[in-house]
Amino acid sequence: MCPGGVLDEDSVISGLSNLGRSAEGDKQVYLHLALPGFSMKDITLLCEFEHLQKVELPYNELTDLKALGNMPHLLELDVSHNKLKALLDFNPPKNLKMADFSFNQITDIPDLAPHHCLTILNIDNNQIKEMKNFGKCHRLKRLSLAHNQIEKIQGLHSLPITHLNLSANKLKKIENIKELDRLQVLNLSGNQIRSLDGLQGHEYLEGIDLEDNEIIDLSEVQYVQKLFLLRQLNLQRNPIRELPDYRLSILFHVRQLTDLDNHRVEVEEKVSATNMFSPSLEVIASRDHIMHVVYSFMQPSRILDSTLPSTETPYPMLVLVGPQGAGKQSLALKLVEEFPDYFGYGVAHTTRKPLPDEVQGKDYNFVSLGEFEETIKSGKFLQTYSYHGELFGLTIDAIEAVAREGLACVVHMELEGVLTLKNTSFEPRYVLVMPLSEEAHEKRLRDRNAYSETQIAWTMDRSELYADYNREKPGFFDMVIDSDDIVEAYKRLRHLVMDYLGIRAPTPSVSDLEPFMTADSNLLDKDYTSDTLAQSTSANNLARTWSKPSLADSATQQALASLKAKTGSPMPTHGRGIVVSHATMTH
Ligand SMILES: Nc1ncnc2c1ncn2[C@@H]1O[C@H](COP(=O)(O)OP(=O)(O)OP(=O)(O)O)[C@@H](O)[C@H]1O
């Protein structure tokens, strides 16, 4: 405590430390003075301490710092918590780097050009209204002006500021910081900011504090979405927090965050966010599956023909999978028509309206949305899928109706349907049917006159998915058929099926079939008469045949292996990067 607030020698001596060489190097001097809380008003005595490099005089009653004007080597100054009305109002030292003037009564920022070496300047808790005169501080990295009365961000030009604190002011907008391209940490908490516009492009930003502002709209995150280094974002006490699923929405849109609202982001949260807003097809399928299982558990149990004939052999089912317009439905119906003793068509449900030539109960069970939802709740669906806003679904009853006749079931669906089906106990054969020429596909969709341009474009884009799955998940599809030419595609399917079943067509054109017969097929070695055909129509026989390893598959493998051995070349691909199964054609 200084008597009368005037700094005396004893007090100075008590505060001196860090004995070292003077800046000129010719003397031993004290470099550091710390006199916090001495109730000092007058520090005139410090005029004699010209060698000081660090001065800390916080928690005093200083109104005037003129005495510091005689310290040319001063590097660091802390005069926080005093009664100063002017900022840096003394003869400038050569190289002042850090200055803390927080908690004073400063109302104005003077020309700071004489203090151009400043790297850190803290003027928090003063009464500053206007940001100005920083222009010459070309080394300023950290600027803190929290708790002032600033209404507008300005005057920072292209300073190399990395940390900017303007919290608790009267800011309404994030403006004039475009040129601060080194900004890493920005604190704008406690203002009246409504939009994050202005933050975009600050690619080094790691942390943004916007607590207690007026951010209300989720779309504001667009401005920080591409700040790839951003790890910490604080939006506490903003209306946006009231939005449903607020936290997961932010985590989904700003995936790089590790800390949101001062809470660490857990990996599980990131996964939940992705599953909520952009679930993978597998997640969608799992949800679909779980929903139907849960609903079916709530129904009385019953014995199903389709789970027979035995627990070891799966019920024979053929799933034609592919994009809309692939021609799956025509292929499926044609197959059933030609092989009525083997196949029945599993009629799916849909909420979409029938096309002019479609027949209720034959092409689909066309139902209302209400009926569809009721069917879901009654636990009858095996899988459902929403396509272009319409619902599609396959009921266990549709399969049962076919199984009861002792027939194998043929159905068609999109990829998502397959993913759900793969979760069930059914083990169908999956045949990817897809036009490999984009032009042919587009033409087919267009010729139907049933889809808008957007729908066509969407379907075309989506077709990539099939190519991806075929490429990246070997074995996902048992077979691939190019359906550019639907007649040709049917021929392939027909031979494929005959190969699987080891039959000849009821109306075979032998010359047509011969080239496709597999030499090692013992089933084909047999002479199938109409009698043996009739015998083999039971579900038991079908199941036995169905569960054999695919002759065509192994033939494909052999063909491809020998091709690879011969040429060393990778698998041949066709249009859209798809490997087509020419299994039966290789013989
Ligand atoms: N239960 C289901 N689950 C998933 N997808 C389904 C289901 N039933 C039908 N789909 C598919 O929904 C899409 C739209 O059905 P739609 O009947 O309009 O197709 P489509 O134009 O006749 O298809 P394609 O020409 O390939 O037969 C088709 O790809 C169809 O296979």
UniProtKB/TrEMBL annotation:
Annotated spans, Disordered: 563-587
Protein name, UniProt field: Guanylate kinase-like domain-containing protein
Keyword Repeat: yes
Superkingdom of the source species: Eukaryota
Domain Guanylate kinase-like: 315-498
Any one Gene Ontology BP term: regulation of signal transduction
Species lineage: Eukaryota, Metazoa, Spiralia, Lophotrochozoa, Annelida
Tagged with keyword Cell inner membrane: no
Entry-linked PROSITE patterns: GUANYLATE_KINASE_2 (PS50052), LRR (PS51450)
GO MF terms, alphabetically ordered: GMP kinase activity
SMART domains named among the record's database cross-references: GuKc (SM00072), LRR_BAC (SM00364), LRR_SD22 (SM00365), LRR_TYP (SM00369)
Protein source organism: Capitella teleta (Polychaete worm)
GO cellular component terms, A-Z: cytosol
Keywords: Leucine-rich repeat, Repeat, Transferase
InterPro entries: GK/Ca_channel_bsu, Guanylate_kin-like_dom, Leu-rich_rpt, Leu-rich_rpt_4, Leu-rich_rpt_typical-subtyp, LRR_dom_sf, P-loop_NTPase
Pfam families: Guanylate_kin, LRR_4, LRR_9
